From TrEMBL:
Lineage of the species this protein comes from: Bacteria, Pseudomonadati, Pseudomonadota, Alphaproteobacteria, Rhodobacterales
Keywords: Membrane, Transmembrane, Transmembrane helix
Membrane spanning residue stretches: 31-49, 55-78, 85-104, 110-127
Name by which UniProt lists this protein: Uncharacterized protein
Domain of life: Bacteria
Amino acid sequence: MTDKKKRGDFYSGIPWVSVSPEQARAHPKGALGPLLWVIVAYFIAIAVLRLTLSLYYGAGPIIALFNCIFPFLVGLGLAFRSPWAVIFAAISAGLTVFALVRGLGGDGNLITLFETLANVGILFYLVDADRPNLIYRHRYRKYSVADAGPDADAGDA
C-alpha cells in the first residue's frame, strides 16, 4: 500500500477511499442535493446578472461575455457533475477576491463583498463536504474503524 493511501485527510486524519465515476454516480449521494442545486442556480444567476449589468453600463458584448463566462461554466459544470467545475469554482472565487481588492473605495463594493463571501463559502463546501467530494472528486471518507484495515491505529483503550 502506498504512503498516500495510508495517510488520511490533513485536518481530520480520516482516510479517503477512491471510487470510479460510475460508482459515484450510482450511489444515492452521487446525485445533486438541494444545496448543490441552489449553488448551481446561484452561479448561473450571477452570470446572468453580470452579463446584464455589463451590457447596461455600456460594455461591449465581448467584454460582457468574458465577465460572465466563469460563473456560467461553474454552474453548468456543477449541474453536469464535471470534476473540473470545482477548479473553475476556485478560479471564480479568486477572481471575485481580486475584484473586491481592486475595487476598494469605489462603487459596488457591497455586491462584490457579498459575491466574494458566497464564492469562498461555496468553495470551502465543494472542497471539504462529503457529497461534493463523492460527486466531483469520486472519493469518500472512511469513517469506520472496522473498515480501516490492518494499518489503522486503533489506539490504546
